[in-house]
Design brief:
Layout lengths: L1 E2 L4 H6 L5 E6 L2 H17 L2 E8 L7 H8 L8 E7 L6 H15 L5 E7 L4 H4 L2 H9 L1 E5 L7 H11 L3 E2 L2 H15 L3 H14 L11 E2 L1 H7 L8 H9 L3 H13 L4 H23 L4 H7 L5 H9 L5 H18 L11 H17 L3 H6 L7
Parallel strand pairs: 1-6, 2-5, 2-6, 3-4, 4-5, 7-8
């Protein structure tokens, strides 16, 4: 049984199940869900709690199996938590988890809570995960997308009796806040809590619960974390300001110039391959699938490709070739010697094509490339 995180309250009203599996790479959301689950379990008499963290190939699963069946006639109900940070329980763990899943069907004195990182599709097709999903409740936690992050922040502020100003000013404040915490939801939560301490909500109507832009700017640190895959989505989305900020963030975090270049160049190559496939008569869905373009990038490719011509793509490929040399220490005419500056320029050129393709961009994309 699958359950969306937002459905927890309604789910708890119908009673607790004996087995829950939580998976995802958002520690804050997973922790909050697990805390709410534990609180509800305590109200239902689950007062004992044991925690097992699976580490290494030689983990002893017998202790986990024994913990669920160790209650005496007069013992309290218990919560058994199994944490698998690697997402790989191993051969013995696979067997043990299937046994636990089947036992959960007839054991209402034990609530089993299993936490996992985000799993790939192959892992979720395994027998052990299938058993957990079949006999219990599975909850998957997806990252908060940048587009909805301002709304998420506003909802969290509202929980503690705060809000931003109405209209454009408030939206500007929320966008600023989102820029500073993007990719780091735990830090976003901490910054929201800090605002609650610095500017406690006042009485209704006195205005003290409204946060100004200056208050947020002065209080919120720049704790955003970026990765090359999110950078790729921003570039293909034609968001030059965000792209520049992300590149600066990646540089300050010590990310490899070569890796960032690879991500940008791979997107350019993928655009060219899919474009060639379309011109050869392949339907868009087939061309994307054959070139391993999935997820958020699918819609970005569908929007961008009809507006990029062959000349623009050829020039972008040539520009990527030049930057490949720069990040490896070579100098290129008409290009910055600094690798990060060259990456900024390359990303900006791709951004320009993906945002609003213009004929003059195609001519200058390669930084002086001749047709």
């Amino acid at each position: 049984m699958n359950l969306a995180p937002a459905q927890l309250s309604e789910h708890l009203k119908r009673g607790l199940k004996s087995l829950y599996t939580l998976q995802g790479d958002e520690p804050l959301l997973l922790q909050e869900f697990a805390d709410a689950l534990r609180a509800a379990a305590r109200q239902h008499g689950y007062t004992e709690r044991t925690v097992h963290t699976v580490s290494g190939a030689h983990f002893d699963w017998s202790e986990v199996l024994a913990s669920g069946g160790s209650l005496s006639l007069f013992a309290d109900k218990q919560i058994v938590e199994i944490r698998i940070p690697s997402g790989k329980p191993g051969k013995d763990g696979s067997v043990a988890l299937q046994q636990l899943a089947e036992r959960a069907q007839r054991d209402d004195a034990t609530l089993t809570l299993i936490t996992l990182p985000k799993l790939d599709s192959m892992t979720t097709k395994g027998a052990w995960f299938g058993a957990l999903d079949s006999f219990g409740v599975t909850v998957r936690f997806e990252p908060i997308d940048r587009r909805v992050l301002p709304q998420w922040i506003a909802q969290r502020l509202q929980r503690q009796g705060q809000r931003v100003a109405a209209g454009e000013e408030g939206q500007r404040t929320l966008q600023f806040f989102a820029d500073r915490v993007e990719g780091n939801l735990l830090a976003a939560h901490q910054e929201i809590q800090k605002l609650g301490l610095l500017y406690p909500a006042g009485e209704e109507g006195d205005g003290q619960d409204v946060l100004s832009f200056d208050q947020v700017e002065n209080a919120v640190l720049n704790v955003a974390r970026y990765d090359v895959f999110k950078l790729s989505e921003a570039v293909l989305g034609g968001q030059p300001v965000r792209v520049a900020r992300m590149l600066d963030g990646l540089q300050s975090e010590g990310e490899s110039e070569v890796l960032v270049h690879w991500a940008l160049a791979e997107d350019i190559r993928s655009l060219k391959r899919v474009k060639d496939a379309l011109q050869a008569g392949r339907p868009m869905p087939m061309a994307l699938r054959e070139n391993r373009v999935w997820g958020a990038k699918e819609k970005l490719f569908e929007r961008v490709l009809p507006n990029i011509d062959d000349t623009a793509l050829a020039n972008l490929l040539y520009a990527a070739h030049k930057v490949d040399g720069i990040v490896k220490g070579l100098k290129q005419p008409d290009w910055p010697d600094d690798g990060w500056q060259a990456l900024h320029r390359l990303a900006g050129l791709v951004c320009a094509q993906c945002a609003t393709p213009r004929p003059w961009v195609s001519r200058v994309a390669a930084g002086g490339a001749k047709g």
